[in-house]
Specification:
With 370 residues, the protein is α/β, with parallel strands linked by helices. It has 2 domains: 11-237, TIM Barrel (Alpha-Beta Barrel); 247-369, Lyase, Ornithine Decarboxylase, Chain A, domain 1, CATH 2.40.37.10. The chain contains 11 helices and 18 strands. It has helices spanning 11-24, 35-39, 43-49, 61-69, 88-93, 103-111, 138-147, 171-180, 207-212, 343-349, 354-359; strands at residues 6-9, 29-33, 55-58, 76-78, 97-100, 118-123, 151-157, 202-203, 220-221, 247-259, 264-265, 271-272, 277-282, 299-302, 305-310, 318-321, 333-337, 366-369. It is elongated and about 75 Å long.
Length: 370
């Protein structure tokens, strides 16, 4: 028998969540973000489930090449652009769309002759100060790119730092974005404020902005975490937004121990029994991607009932309180997150985000389509 830890991936949930994104932004095309191995769900498995998306966004050339090798003809965006000029010939051959976020990348592109024209995205730094062209240099970069024969089309983009925080929101960054754009040659009225003063296609909205700020939708939205059924907001879980969890991380009890009052449990005796109790040992640990820093009290479901983690998480195992789970025994099913236990709840208890838990799933964890 194989080790009982399995990450079950629900393709129907991924497709459903894509539908939620489309319903929230009906006038926009959807660029499905499937970087980081499909947020831990498997790159190709995720791409199959999200085939109805209008395009895909990844980080590396290797991810993009894998998608092309499997026959995907969608637009594919490289979110960090190219890392070396040597990559441009392969980017052109694979018909990829690199994000240009530094002015020297415009220079490199101007010196490159691949024989094929590229669609590119020009990223504007609207205040996050991570990647992007300074607002005062955007007009110059656009003018140069427009004159390059090797550039077929330009999409403007930026990224919001606080779309998940209603106290900050997106208004400030959206205003910076609008001011950074040169006025169109012939002013034309636009219904979408995000595209004011822009004759170029625009992509701004991440998951949080897509759901909360329709003024950011523009031509392309870029959902990431919501596609996997998790909420981008700290005060809501995915179910409250109509999302379905795409990953169900499950295992089984591999031992049951009786611990007497006052006895320690696990490394460092980080938990001492408050009373005589039964403790279940679960085949899952931090080497599988479960957060090592998850404290006592982190929710776990055993045999369909919610209980709690006890003590420190080990490399391959963790301990759970069986006091509220009558009849639990070796072989009883355990849900680490997924159906009945939102990954957001586990992440909040561990002081982290659902993004980290999903993307941290280790290669040794068996992954199956449900």
């Amino acid at each position: 028998m194989p080790r009982p830890l399995i990450a079950r991936i629900h393709a129907a949930a991924l497709a459903h969540n894509l539908g939620v994104a489309r319903a929230a932004a009906p006038g926009s095309r959807v660029l499905a973000v499937i970087k980081a191995n499909g947020y831990g769900h498997g790159l190709l498995r995720t791409a199959r489930a999200l085939r109805a998306a209008d395009g895909f966004a990844v980080v590396s050339l290797e991810e993009a090449a894998c998608l092309r090798a499997q026959g995907y003809t969608h637009p594919i965006v490289l979110l960090e652009g190219f890392f070396s000029p040597d990559e441009l010939s392969e980017i052109a051959r694979l018909r990829l769309r690199p994000v240009l976020h530094r002015l020297d990348q415009v220079d490199i592109l101007a010196r490159t002759r691949s024989g094929q024209r590229l669609d590119v995205l020009l990223k504007v730094d609207t205040g996050m100060h991570r990647l992007g062209i300074p607002p005062g240099r955007v007009a110059d970069a656009l003018s140069r790119l427009t004159d390059l024969p090797q550039v077929a089309g330009i999409t403007l983009m930026s990224h919001f730092a606080c779309a998940d925080d209603p106290a900050v929101g997106v208004a400030g960054q959206l205003a910076v974005f609008r001011r950074a754009l040169p006025a169109p040659p012939v002013p034309t009225p636009v219904a979408d404020p995000a595209q004011a003063n822009s004759p170029w296609p625009v992509s701004l909205a991440n998951s949080a902005a897509l759901l909360r700020y329709p003024e950011t939708h523009a031509d392309w939205v870029r959902p990431g975490i919501l596609l996997y059924g998790a909420s981008p907001f700290p005060d809501q879980d995915g179910a409250a937004l109509g999302l379905l969890p795409a990953m169900h991380l499950e295992s089984r009890l591999i031992a049951v121990q009786t611990v007497r009052r006052g006895e320690g449990l696990g490394y460092g005796f980080a938990y001492r029994a408050e009373q005589d109790m039964r403790v279940g040992i679960v085949a899952c640990g931090y080497a599988d991607g479960y957060p090592r820093h998850a404290p006592t009290g982190t929710p776990v479901r055993v045999a369909g009932q919610t209980t709690r983690l006890l003590g420190r998480v080990s490399m391959d195992m963790l301990c759970v309180d069986l006091s509220p789970v009558r009849g639990a025994q070796v072989g009883s099913p355990v849900t680490l997150w997924g159906d009945g236990l939102p990954v957001e709840r586990v992440a909040a208890a561990a002081g982290t985000l659902a993004y980290e838990l999903l993307t941290a799933i280790a290669p040794r964890v068996r992954m199956e389509e449900a």
